Amino acid sequence: MIKAKVKLKDSEFSEEVEISDHHMVRNGKSSELSQVNLDIPVTGTLYGTLLNYKGSLEALMEQVHHPPYNEPPKGPVLYIKPRNTFSAFAKPVPLPTGEPELEIGASLGIVIGKTATRVKKAQAMDYIEGFTIVNDISIPHESVYRPAIRYKARDGFCPIAPWVVSKDSISNPDRLGIRVYINGELRQENTTSNLIRPISRLIEDITDFMTLNAGDVLLVGVPENAPLAKANDHVRIEIDEIGYLENPIVTEEKLAMEGIS
């Protein structure tokens, strides 16, 4: 059994549960995720990391040696997904009017367990509470030179779920397989073993210049060749030893007509 923390809708606090074969065991009762009304399992600020997969940086290698970049990044390239983007398991992701499709950003989320400032690699795991699954959705765009707020910070553009799995339940977070399915078809597959900065190194580099607080979530990054999803598509992200995150893509017009927010 895997130990995890989950937050249910209409519940003020998170609670500890056990996970078995992607089912949640609560008070001795096993339930499929579709039977449970799940809420967002984290409370803090969410920080994304760009170009932390070897393939994603290699795809830009020709560009990063020319203006406006001029050279590859020497440190982590960060951005924030604000609270308005947060969404829960199974909740519809809005497809903005005039946009044909969305970029699916499958990422492992590191949930910080205590205040982390100038943490060294050897102690980095001591500052982690656990791990979750995040879909860092964007409107497709090319440049990573400036924060793409218009493309990345739309309402509902960051489903986070279904739970926070205890770090002690994960064998090696730097070797977790990640898969994206759209309408049941495998569209992307990668592994955290392809990170430029593994988890401990990423925490060390970031906390060297900024503090991470308990409840914050740090994304390890999104693999290259992120798949695209359109209206009425069903997106499923799987991460080994953690579970899966599912959300449908629904047009803003349809959501407005149905009164869903």
Could you characterize the architecture of this molecule?
It comes from Peribacillus simplex. One of its GO terms (molecular function) is metal ion binding. It holds the Pfam family FAA_hydrolase. Keywords: Isomerase, Metal-binding. The model has no long low-confidence stretch (mean pLDDT 92). 11% of the residues lie in helices and 35% in strands. It has helices spanning 54-59, 61-64, 149-152, 199-207, 252-258, and strands spanning 2-6, 15-20, 23-26, 29-31, 46-50, 77-81, 86-87, 93-95, 102-103, 106-112, 128-135, 158-166, 177-182, 185-191, 217-219, 228-229, 234-239, 243-251. The two termini are 35 Å apart. The chain has five helices and 18 strands. The protein has a single domain (42-258), classed as Alpha-Beta Complex (Fumarylacetoacetate hydrolase, domain 2).
List keywords for this structure.
5-stranded mixed sheet; globular; mainly beta; 261 residues; Fumarylacetoacetate hydrolase, domain 2; 5 helices
> What is the averaged pLDDT score?
92
- CATH evolutionary superfamily: Fumarylacetoacetase-like, C-terminal domain
**SSE topology string:** EEEEEHHEEEEEEHEEEHEEEEH
Q: What structural class do helix, strand and pairing data support?
A: mainly beta
Principal-axis shape: globular
Major sheet characteristics? 11 strands, mixed
The N- to C-terminal Cα distance equals: 35 Å
Computed over alpha carbons, the radius of gyration is 18 Å
Low-confidence stretches: none
Helix fraction bin: 10-25%
Q: Please work out how many helical segments DSSP would assign.
A: 5
Domain module count? 1
In terms of DSSP E residues, the strand content is 35-45%
CATH class: Alpha Beta
CATH topology: Fumarylacetoacetate hydrolase, domain 2
Which second-level CATH architecture applies?
Alpha-Beta Complex
Would you count the extended β strands for me? 18
